[in-house]
């Protein structure tokens, strides 16, 4: 899906070609240092932010930025109250945890529930019901009217993961690590009046 | 010619960067409320009327209406200052209590760094960041974060919000309660908060005295260590190390100097044979000369041939001019025998007597000696002993040598010097232990918590 920068019309690319699916709400102005076009790197691989989804839940909101890597693969830079998670999609089948089944069956999930991914232990620290309120740029799915359940997981090191299930869709899972803007060498960040812009080494 | 017509317009200057602060009007009182973290802020407490506003609703719905004049935090909302290399802006302030003590917490924000907490316990400030990882178990009963071990401090306790103003990224409200558990290492606290189905871990680094005050331009707090914070490093620890090193050097120096200056000098010696169980014998050593000033006099007796017998020695050192005398006594003894554990022997056949501070002058030393046999040992064989001394069955006698030395430093003086030298290290040690005791003491209530920070 691509959201037009000017008219906020959403254009969906399907097998039948391009199809206008509606008008997407403009992302409200927020004090995020990220914007479309920001570049960063994950180790040796560079990426550029090409899309954003804004999710809202009862007690807050956060951004998920679609990162297009130089090798053509994609990942997500999740931004929540100043914390950043750099995530890539993984196969939910490799997660050893009751969470996946609980998500499929729409059962309650308690914070503290354990999960093992690739031999590393994670614990659920945040469970919430979210809905997409706005988006911009390019996205790999139709964000219009999307609502989902989302579980964030933490580990004893910088690793983290996220398991989501949208209504009527399959369970999707993402794994990665917490990063700072300095660690990903972010460039092209938004400037704010009277705030010194950090100069990270790209 | 065409140049003049088609010259492009000068490039327009780039638009100035937007402000991160968005002023809006409080729907309750109409006052201006500055939203400093649009998009992330969830609740705003109007600094004019105290109403709680919902920043997630487009028109700032009033969640809780209030019309009370608010107290202002010591560091004003909107203040910016660098702390530990990052510029932070104060966006919110709340006060919390565990019902015994209260403290203030400033919510700090930087667009590129996220959030931090500046915790003010009324004495000192700590800078807190939320952890992005879970602690592992570490140490005996503690936790570890990035190779730093934290020990548990006290028991979990309830914490309640008592006052709040400004903006927050969660649904903050007066009365909001969490359960807190603290873990500490000198200089840093790890605070675990459980509440509303969520658990957070915050790492709090104690700031130096005056660090936050001078950054935000508020009066410096008065240094005192009466009620230390749980994660406060002992200010006496560095001094303690210093005091013991200096004390150790001084003590070694004392021993070296006393060893050099205190060499003894032999001034008299005499021998006597004392008959065992016979009459008392008197030995007079005349003309013991002591130099002007006070001297230490050591009288050593040597009766090393004693065997299951003892010699009583009475000394009297008399000034020839004034006839003042100093008396003392000693016992030379040696016992041995066999019992179920094998052979044994005890007693000192070479007793020393030390007289301190004897004024200069000419003295006579009168030694009265009497020797006695001991017959308590069952295995005692008198003939063997008799043969050894060659007494031929007659009266046995014991040879005794008495020597007089002067000089040397009296052990008591060295001890006194040591006490003086070690006084400082010991005082610092007790200061350190007292601090640690106060630091670990269960927190007790005090009525000056809210205003103790407002010096002058």
Report what the structure shows.
The complex is a heterodimer of chains A (202) and B (456). Chain A is mainly beta and 202 residues long. Chain A has one domain (2-26, 33-179). Chain A contains one helix and 14 strands. An eight-stranded antiparallel barrel of chain A has the order 5-6-7-8-14-13-12-11. In chain A, a hairpin with an 8-residue loop joins strand 11 and strand 12. The mean pLDDT of chain A is 91. Chain B contains five helices and 23 strands. In chain B, a hairpin with a 3-residue loop joins strand 8 (102-110) and strand 9 (114-120). In chain B, helix 3 runs antiparallel to helix 5. The longest helix of chain B is centred in the C-terminal third of the chain and has 30 residues, at 411-440. The model of chain B is unreliable at 1-5, 378-393 and 444-456 (pLDDT under 50).
Task: Provide a short characterization of the protein structure.
Chain A is mostly beta strands and 202 residues long. Chain A is built from 1 helix and 14 strands. Chain B is an alpha+beta fold.
Portion of residues within helices of chain B: 10-25%
Low-pLDDT runs of 5+ residues of chain A are: none
Q: What fraction strand of chain B?
A: over 45%
DSSP helical segment count of chain A = 1
Mean pLDDT of chain B: 85
What spatial order of strands do you see in the largest sheet of chain B?
7-8-9-10-16-15-14-13
Q: Helicity of chain A, in percent? A: under 10%
Class of secondary structure makeup of chain B = alpha+beta
Largest interface by residue count? A-B, 41 and 34 residues
Describe the sheet with the most strands of chain A: 8 strands, antiparallel, barrel
Q: Beta-sheet strand percentage of chain A?
A: over 45%
Number of helical runs of chain B?
Answer: 5
